Every structure is written in structure tokens, then in C-alpha cells.
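INTERNAL AUDIT FORM
Audit reference: QA-55
Scope: verify that the stored structure record matches its stored sequence.
Auditor: D.O.
Record contents follow.
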Amino acid sequence: ARFAAGDGAAFRVGNGLPAGAFLVLNISRIDAQKNQLMLLEAFARFRASHPEAVLVLIGPETQPDYAARLRVFMDANQLGGCVRVLPGLRNDDPGLVQAFHACDVFVLPSMHEPFGIVVLEAWSSGRPVVASRVGGLQALLRDEETGLFFDPNAPAAAADLAARLERLASEPATRQRLARAGQEEARGHYDWARIGQELERLYARAEQHAGAPNP
């Protein structure tokens, strides 16, 4: 519920981002596992046809060498004016909710992801999600229903991700459909009250199993 409403315009103003720019957002630690370098490669391709687009990366730099590689790529591809790398935000920071509401699409390009709670936050904010088909994300998203998948290990991963960004930028109805479905998924299956009910059901089943006679 905390992510249901947020002031995306305030986030854009506070960070000097154009009001009408197509904004791609990634929130995760700056780390090779999170694969922001490939996201930069995809964004560079995407921006060739959408020069007004901006990319915002938010997260602590847990691998300084990897963060340096990102900056080298940005400099080499003249992305300094359209990519912002911002420090990580605490979970209770209002800016976190604002960031989700400021974006047009949320991207999680991780090489591995056990679950991906940021996907739930993006869904709860009513934003469409593009994510890697890896780990727990494969059970969390449904391709073409609650999000769009791509394979981060494919030789053409950057081109594939750029194509998905291109599609969402040119198809507002698809963005709205995926965002709406994701929001319904978050509310229907990941609300804390619903999770509590599921835990209670699992404990009840475990209790019944423990009390059953051995065959």
C-alpha cells in the first residue's frame, strides 16, 4: 500500500530530469551480478531512436571496480547527460516511492535473482517491469502477462532488452496492461495479510502431517 501513490514529478524535479522524458529505472546495488553494464548497452541502443530517454540507476556501489566500468562505458558512449547514478535509498525513504512513480518502465537485468522484491515494489507502484528470465524471477513474473522477460545470457541480450524497451515506449497500451496486471498480482498474492493467511495454512498442514500416524 505504501507504494500505491507517489510524487514522480517531485523526483524528476529534484534530480533535474526532464518532465516528458521516457524514464527507465533500475534499483539495485551496483554489482556485476545485477548486470547494469548490459543495461547501459541496451539503453545506448534504445536511445538511438529515443534521444529524449533517460536512465536512472539507484543503488550503493558494492563493487567499486564494476562501478568504474559503468562510468567508462558512459563516457565512451556519450551517455553522461542521459544516465544518472544515484546513491542507494533506504526502504523508508520517501524518495524510493517517488522514484518508482517517476519511471515509465522498471528494468531488473540481474544475472541471478533469488526473488526480486523490487519487482513487487514496481508492480505496487503501477509500473511495467522488464526482467531477466533467471532464478526466482521465473516463478514471479509471467511473460507477456505481468511483465516482459529477456535472457541475460543470450549473445544478443542487449539488443533483446533494447527491443523490449522500444516496444514499451511505442505501445502505451501494453505498458498500461502490464502495469495493471502487475499491480493486481502484487495486491492479490503478496499483500502481508494474504501472506499471513498462507503461512497459517502451511503451519496447519505441517501440524496435521506431524500428528498423522506413521504408515
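Auditor finding: record pair retrieved intact. The mean pLDDT is 93.
Action required: none
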